[in-house]
Design brief:
The chain is an all-beta fold. The chain is 2% helix and 63% strand. An 8-stranded antiparallel beta barrel has the order 9-10-11-12-13-14-15-16.
Amino acid sequence: MHVGKNYVELNYDLMKVDSIRQSDSEYTLYLTREKNQHAILSVKLQDNDRALFNFSNGKMLMKCKYYDRNPDIDYLPVSEYPKLITGKWFANLNTLESLAIEKGKLVYDGNRWNIVWLGEYMKREYRALIENNGNYRLIYLVKQTDNSWKLTYYQNSTIYIPMSADVDKYAVFGNWYEPVKNEWTFGFFEKFAIYQGKLWDYKTLNIKKNKGTATLQNGNETFELRFNKANDSTLDLRSVHVNSHLFSVACSYVQDKSR
């Protein structure tokens, strides 16, 4: 459990402190969870560094010892923050939703967050407490085997991939379906494509200003595609395999809610 300036963290759950009532050595904290659920935490001091925590009227009783900082977290100095997340990363193959550390602040979820602290927890993951306009979040960062970052906040996870030097190709990345038959048809991703239930390698992929070509290869089979992105949700795609069709975007990412 971590008690901060105006929040309480318990088992990955960050709760805002609405008010505090004191009676001698006992404190009652009235809390609000992420989805406006309310809870009560009673804290009875027993000596200088120990207290009895009673969460939600006896549903959870804990005898706790006070620490200045979590002994299981190896806290990074501020100068090391930019070395952890270098460059810019994108979520959902969307260049508008970025993750970066710039001038000591975390760029995330459309805002620039103050980093209260950032550290490595038991060599398993990185944790950070961030703040923006009095709103606190406790986030968890795990580096994946494919070099992406998995960021978890309030039990919801998002995958961030590094920004490519060739930003134009993000225009076609995502899942596309044929609107007349309403059938999912193509998936284009950083290192491969999906078509007819198969994984295809990019022999070539050249896109500039929403137009371009790709040569896909699966074993001995190859074919060429020509792209013309009409707008944010419509892709004109032509090839030898596929007659001229307009494909409407279905989605670009399926959120990973597991931890």
